[in-house]
Design a protein that fits this description.
This protein is α+β, with helices and mostly antiparallel strands. The chain contains 9 helices and 4 strands.
Length: 318
């Protein structure tokens, strides 16, 4: 049935259907590949931004540890100032940064196995990340997706190690820690750290929908552009096909029908040197041969008629 329907279609319609099928198949095939590539690119772009933010927070921590905490050391004995804690400074600076439109979807946490401030305590998922950093010394970065009750998130994490000896003033033993810190957080959590030990992980996350949305926007834009370009190509091919193939073929067909009905005054025009032109030239030679054959037939008929006429006159005279 389908073959029969295709046979009844014109050449231009067949070509249009073929190109449309190629377009649809190409879009479906490339859609999956394009989606994977663009999702990967979106992840890379968001990861790059997250790493810049992470390095910024690392700089804030270092600035606080080296320039703020030493200046407040004497005061910390009597009054606890959270602003002197690198983790607190980094968290507060990031919260200010999140007020900017470009960073409002990002979240920052220094997920620690045994923090002084329980706000920074690693949950089960984050604990596995930290433990992996502790076991694999060559591992410097992790990223992936995580499912939460509020929705999936994309995260990137880096190990957080004790790199400054002055950090041990607050985290080695409760006896060395400022009394004001003990009064505020107690002497149970955040102690026993060692120099160069990985105690946590810097984790920056963003809703997974952000990654998917970014990829979908790019996919939609690219597919739209490809569809428009391909539609324009189909239109141009139809115009070319109509002018260079369909119209000349219709003209050849029309002339052939007139010749078949005995109208020998019409002639086949060779408008090009391509296959259509060769076809017109062949029809022209065929018409010329047909005209010659018809002329010979007419001449033969006249000769026979004249011969019969002369014979009849001779018989009459006899």
């Amino acid at each position: 049935m389908m073959t029969l329907k295709l046979k009844n279609l014109q050449l231009r319609q067949k070509v249009t259907i073929l190109l449309a099928i190629i377009l649809i198949a190409g879009l479906c095939l490339s859609g999956f590949t394009l989606s994977a590539v663009l999702t990967s690119n979106a992840k890379s772009e968001i990861s790059s931004t997250a790493l810049v933010l992470m390095e910024t927070m690392k700089s804030v921590r270092e600035y606080t540890s080296k320039q703020i905490t030493p200046e407040l050391k004497d005061k910390l004995e009597t009054t606890f100032l959270p602003q002197s804690i690198p983790a607190y400074s980094a968290r507060e600076v990031f919260e200010i940064l999140r007020k900017k439109t470009n960073y409002e979807d990002f979240f920052y946490k220094e997920a620690t196995l045994d923090p002084t401030n329980l706000r920074d305590k690693a949950d089960g998922f984050e604990r596995k990340i930290v433990e992996r950093f502790r076991k694999e010394s060559n591992l410097t970065e992790l990223e992936g997706f995580r499912s939460l009750p509020g929705g999936d998130i994309f995260y990137i994490a880096r190990p957080l190690a004790v790199t400054e000896p002055r950090c041990l003033d607050c985290h080695s033993t409760p006896e060395r820690a400022p009394q004001s810190m003990i009064d505020r957080y107690g002497a149970t959590n955040g102690f026993g750290w060692q120099l160069n030990e990985i105690v946590g992980a810097q984790v920056i996350s963003v809703p997974a929908s952000k990654v998917i949305q970014k990829a979908n926007q790019s996919s939609f834009l690219i597919i739209t552009i490809v569809s428009v370009v391909f539609a324009a190509i189909i239109l141009l091919i139809n115009i070319f096909l109509n002018r260079q193939v369909v119209v000349p073929l219709k003209r050849i067909t029309q002339v052939a029908e007139e010749v078949s009905m005995g109208h020998t005054k019409v002639d086949f025009e060779q408008l090009s040197n391509d296959e259509i032109g060769s076809l017109a030239k062949a029809f022209k030679r065929m018409k010329f041969s047909l005209d010659k054959a018809m002329e010979r037939l007419k001449n033969t008929g006249r000769t026979r008629g004249n011969t019969r006429g002369n014979t009849n006159r001779e018989n009459t005279n006899s």
